[in-house]
Design a protein that fits this description.
Blueprint lengths: L2 H13 L2 H9 L5 H4 L6 H10 L1 H19 L7 E8 L7 E11 L2 H70 L4 H35 L22 H8 L4 H21 L5 E10 L4 E10 L8 H42 L3 H16 L5 H32 L5
Antiparallel strand pairs: 1-2, 2-3, 3-4
Helix pairs in contact: 1-6, 4-6, 5-6, 6-7, 6-9, 6-12, 9-10, 10-12, 11-12
Length: 410
């Protein structure tokens, strides 16, 4: 086989669709945030939010907590008592007594508990929002992993196409006496390593996809993730980002709600010092006369409410301190994520993408022009693809960090 035939064999897969081969390589040259306008992940997250069992359970728990908070402000049950009195020596002399009584707290206590119930409902909603954010962020991270694995697989398939062609050429050259067994074995080992890498990529892809399907209650996802990242906003300065995202943080909102509930409980417990009232109807009957009237009563809370206000104040102070701790942790976590995003962004800038694209074109021209042997060409191509892999992994890490930064906007 002459050099011209060798070159034709090596580039046959690309010549059949050269734009396809170049296109696969150029996947790494455009950050999808700049190149794409549609979000391939949003439809997936919509389905996960609808089907995820954790979120369904959290929604039902939220409803239960809201109903329980409202039920705690209901009137107590009315009491009905009936007594039948008789004299064993005078059987004709019998009396009966009927009493119907409704107890209730002082009216201001109901107003205080009603406000507390609304605040408890807000706290339940905040707890659900935290769970929802966590589930959707986990699903989005899986989608980003799938996109990254797809993009990396495209590069590996491009390299495998050349490795497979080279292995076949080496076999033919060995039969013709133009290559050694060592060269053939090396080509086969390179191809074997690539196939192993592709198998690992496919296994990681299947694992991530299975986890995503499990989060969707094993319901088939209509919009499968492709190989393009969703658009992402450019990172502003930290102060601007902090001012925008900290007020949206779900944990901080949950801590705020818990603090308001605890503060309101102080007012509710203060109402416990007011008397508990009773009103009702009473009827007495005797053989010769009947009596009807009203019953009015009450209880003075001398002992039952002792210490409850102090305990409520302590819980309110504890909730406020926890809120301050959450606020400091939220800002610290955001600062760490921001620094990581900037570092990854800077690392991505070290990759000269136009140079990599130009090098890819030059490799083909050098092989066709006889400046490179088939072995040199493959070594250079593999090195270039490995550089592309490094860039793709940084790109994936960058998108996952941004997903965590903007998680509270999901």
């Amino acid at each position: 086989m002459n050099i011209y035939e060798l070159k034709q064999r090596l580039f046959a897969p690309l010549h059949a669709g050269r734009s396809k081969g170049v296109g696969l390589f150029l996947l790494l040259l455009a950050t999808s945030a700049m190149a794409q306008t549609a979000d391939p992940i949003a439809p997936v997250l919509e389905q996960v939010e609808q089907n995820n069992r954790r979120l369904q359970a959290a929604r039902e728990l939220m409803k239960a907590e809201v109903l329980e908070a409202k039920a705690g402000n209901n009137l107590g049950n009315p009491e009905v008592n009936y007594a039948h009195l008789f004299n064993s020596e005078r059987g004709s002399q019998q009396q009966s007594e009927l009493t119907v009584v409704q107890g209730f707290d002082f009216p201001t206590a109901y107003a205080a508990r009603s406000k507390a119930a609304r605040l408890q409902g807000d706290a339940a909603q905040c707890a659900y929002d935290v769970e929802r954010r966590n589930v959707l962020l986990e699903a989005k991270q899986l989608c980003l992993d799938l996109i990254g694995l797809n993009r990396e697989a495209n590069l590996l398939h491009l390299l495998q196409t050349h490795a497979d062609s080279l292995a076949q050429v080496c076999e033919e050259r060995l039969q013709q006496g133009d290559a050694t067994a060592l060269e053939v074995n090396r080509a086969k080992l390179d191809l074997m390593a690539l196939r192993t890498e592709l198998a690992d990529n496919a296994a990681a892809h299947r694992a991530a996809l299975q986890r995503l399907l499990a989060m969707n209650a094993n319901v088939y996802i209509d919009h499968m993730v492709a190989d393009a990242y969703p658009p992402v906003p450019a990172l502003p300065d930290y102060e601007t980002l902090c001012d925008h995202l900290v007020p949206l943080n779900r944990e901080l909102l949950q801590a705020d709600a818990a603090t308001r509930v605890a503060q309101k409980e102080v007012s509710v417990n203060r109402q416990g010092w007011l008397p508990h009232l009773q009103v009702g109807y009473r009827r007495n009957t005797a053989p010769t006369e009947e009596f009807n009237g009203f019953v009015v009563g009450g209880s003075i809370p001398l002992f039952a409410n002792k210490g409850k206000v102090k305990a409520a104040r302590a819980r309110a102070l504890s909730a406020e301190l926890q809120r301050e701790d959450v606020a400091m942790n939220v800002e610290a976590a955001l600062q760490a994520l921001y620094n990581e995003a900037r570092q990854v962004e800077e690392a991505m800038r070290t990759y000269d993408l136009p140079l990599m694209r130009h090098s890819f074109d030059l490799l083909g021209k050098a092989l066709h022009g006889g400046e490179l042997s088939w072995h040199q060409y493959f070594v250079e191509l593999e090195a270039l693809v490995r550089q592309g892999q490094g860039y793709l992994r940084l790109e994936n890490r960058y998108h996952k960090v941004l997903a965590r930064i903007y998680a509270d906007t999901l």
